């Protein structure tokens, strides 16, 4: 009987890999194709526009090279990334446990649920002047802006994830007399991981936006500083350089979170049948 | 020892809110005793309260009135004296088969080599020793339920509570698991309370069949078939099997309000 069952499994596995090999176009080719097509179109039509009102890829590349050669871009990137990493890390450390207890304990949900939902919709830009009064113009106000922008989506996603953990899985914990905190750590947390990871990905984008906002409204510095200085000088091509860098950065960070997800929750991708 | 009693158990559920709220009685003053070492099967149409009775016995559901006794002692909530096998196995998808079996043991406080060896022994008992490193999605439905059984047995409970554990399996897998369960019960001598809506399964497994209807106990039917049950194919087609099956069928279809 065991034999039969294991034969079944190996059949399954070979069937799946054959299907994978028959796949026509790898994803990265399609993605690259879209980007190349967009760049070519931009290059062709962008050249006709007054350089104050718009720019085009080759001009941006030249401006980018100048910024790299002068060392400005690397310095600005380093300046921007430090508060980002700290603010983002703090939002994970606070947001995930907050979401877990929100979803699991009715009292906490009743006490803090509205605040978290409201906090997510908080017009952060409007609060920046106040934050500046509290924290000054330097490093910490940037950390605070990034933290406030990231912590709510992480907490809310985690909270929602806890809400949809199948009840029988929690009953497994109860049936084996597991204490509440053990159920939270050993059952609810792993079951919620896909939602947590989605929250982390969502927050990468928001965190990058928060970083630029912070650099606009506090001490002008970092990548946001280059944007605003170039814009004030009507140097549009130069202004686009940090924007492109930020988009690439956010995409890479997203991919990084995806890699971490496959590390900590390999069963998730395998269950869904995503092997690439 | 492993004797379980439901004593005068009533279970009320309230659904809806405010003016729309209404109370449903899932169990109405149900009492029965499962003797040490026997297999008792709870049978009835869906909504008859059989699963609720099992969940009350397990402690996952609190009785509105009445209580549950294990070996003469009243119990509250879940405990290691009872092991639960869930309807759809409910393995933790991020753990391997071995880790799933270890889960209950860890909760019970077992650690180290003893933990590994005990879990392995129970995986072996259900014939899955070689699949110890597979995750639930890599196992067939039948294999998953075997792991579920191993997980419940591993904590060495006095009573095994099984909630339609083979209901979602195909006929052949179900039959092989039924045979295996009989075999495991013969070897371990565990008391088993088994919920099903399948008449054949009830007769095949049970020493006694508890027939339920509308939250009430309808009848308890003794299954006077020899143990071990031997050749199941032959047993199924024997007149004794058919006779008992018919008696349970009649108990299920007896409409108390219709008089001929």
From TrEMBL, chain A:
The chain crosses the membrane at residues 25-45, 81-102, 114-137, 143-162, 208-228, 240-260. This is ABC transporter permease subunit. Coiled coil: none annotated. Residues 77-257 form the ABC transmembrane type-1 domain. The keyword Nucleotidyltransferase does not apply. Keywords: Cell membrane, Membrane, Transmembrane, Transmembrane helix, Transport. Signal peptide: none annotated. It is a multi-pass membrane protein. Belongs to the binding-protein-dependent transport system permease family. Its main location: membrane.
Automatic annotation (TrEMBL), chain B:
The keyword ATP-binding applies. Signal peptide: none annotated. Keywords: ATP-binding, Nucleotide-binding, Transport. It comes from the Bacteria. PROSITE patterns: ABC_TRANSPORTER_1, ABC_TRANSPORTER_2. Residues 4-239 form the ABC transporter domain. GO terms for molecular function: ATP binding. The keyword Transport applies. Belongs to the ABC transporter superfamily. This is ABC transporter ATP-binding protein. It comes from Rhodoplanes tepidamans.
